[in-house]
Amino acid sequence: MSDWIAIGALALVAILIPVSMMVVSWLLRPSVPEQGKRATYESGEVPVGSSRAIKFNIQYYLVALLFVVFDVETVFIIPWTVVYEDAVTEIGLGEALLPMALFLGVLLLGLGWAWRNGAVKWVRSAQVDSQRVSES
Amino acid sequence: MSTLLPETISDALGIGGVTGTFLGGVIGAALVGSFILVNTAVAGPWLKRKIMASFWEKIGPNHIGPFGSLIMVADAVRLISKELVVPEGVDRPAWDLAPMVLASSALLGFAVIPMGSILGINVQLADPEVGLAFVFAVASIASVGLVMAGYASNNKFSFLGGLRAVAQNLAYEIPLILTGISVVIFAGSLQMSEIVAAQSQTLLSVGPVDVPAWFGILNPFALALFLVANLAEVGRNPFDIPEAPTEIVAGYQTEYSSVYFVLLYLGEFIHIFLGGAIVATVFLGGPAGPVLPGIVWFLVKIWAVFLFTQWCRSSLPRIRVDQLIGIGWKGLLLASFANLIVTAAIVGVLAV
User: Cα(B90)–Cα(B67) distance, rounded to whole angstroms?
Assistant: First the structure.
């Protein structure tokens, strides 16, 4: 219990440090409002459209989906690693290792499938391909 | 098991009960937090520039103080007293919170890191049984902060930078965790003190020198994998794709100025040190080492990892974003699975 009180105390300190820096800065810093200063940076041009309406590569969704699968899988692996050595002496190597090997095998099969379908290969749009001068 | 820092403080103050625990915790946390901040203050504005300068045959800061070291103070005052320019159309609460999330979450990870002892005091805030899982969980909160910064800035470069940062963190988090927990197979516990204790045995003796059973020595392949994944996790070359100054200005930091910029920068450096602390604890025997007190060895190890990141930063070219996905999902992920299975098989065969 005292462990988690200490962790909570560090969480409190970890929030207080940035907040105190922000307060100090607020006391010190000048404010000189000027026309055009607040425009977002777009290589010196007047910003066009909203940044939240831009189209971006579908790849970001694909890797996020894959991540969810593998992240859940680490949740299952962590307890296994903790008990593994004791389990080997108690129930034998085969029964401790093979089920996990099978589990990982299924996962890797899934990764192989995703790999073959191009989920972990960067997707290039047709527009980019048409503008490409040479393939390297 | 030795007494933890909060208990030592509450004993010294002579206050018992929940009040004592809480007070000890807060004072201990303040001490640990300041310790980390001092490290980042030395690293960020001064030593990093000096290291870079040496790599690139330059001089680096040399005007203020001995070896230009007072640039730390000058830069802190300069950056904090800059005007805060709030860009048009930012998503207000998220834009303000993102730097805080980054800095705070990185700092929180240090709660369970054993930093060795000084004058007989064990510098470790807490030692819960889920220590290693806690560190990984807290360290990955940073991804949320990066998305917030990238999305809320109302800047196309920031948005792309945020997306890239998340894609990179997702691709390298699994190898990082899988390699990290491959040592749990040796240690049989997630508790940080147990992991350090498991590394204190002697592996073999070469003449008068005892080689300790550090997991980095037992399994150097895992150490190498972890260092690479950690580089990607903290976003340093060759994996500085989220910032990529030549492609997307400064990525998610583009629209931040004044104290918010300081916080983002601070968060990044605390993250590098947190990565170093995990490497030191899990692979390099924690604060173990001869003659000198533990905390000195701990510092030596985290600074060694810091130097390694700066070395890579100054000497390696950046990879492209499509290569990043390939290396993460095809290379490192398979290598970390192979590492886990082979480690488990070897430990299993030895244990039978």
Answer: 41
Q: Is the dihedral of CA B156, B160, B165, B166 positive or negative?
A: positive
Percent of chain B with pLDDT over 70: 99
Q: Enter the tokens of residue B281.
A: 């604890």
pLDDT at A135 over 60: no
The whole-number pLDDT of residue A90 equals 82
Window 94-123 of B: residues touching A by CB (8 A cutoff) are 99-100, 103-105, 107-108, 110-112
Is A55 in CB contact (< 8 Å) with chain B?
no
The ipTM, to two decimals, is: 0.84
- Is B191:B129 a contact under the CB 8 Å cutoff? yes
Domain ranges for chain B: 94-351
Looking at residue B133, its amino acid is A
Domain boundaries, chain A: 1-28, 56-122
- Whats the size of chain A, residue-wise? 136
The pTM score is 0.88
pLDDT, greater one: A133 or B136 = B136
pLDDT(A1) > 80 = no
B211–chain A nearest CA distance, Å: 23
* Degrees, nearest 5: CA angle B140-B283-B175: 40
A2, A100, A115 ranked by CB distance to B6: nearest = A2
Of A10, A21, A93, the CB nearest to B80: A21
Average pLDDT, chain B: 85
What is the distance between the terminal CA atoms of chain B, rounded to a whole angstrom? 29
Angle, vertex CA B210, rays to CA B209 and CA B215, nearest 5: 135
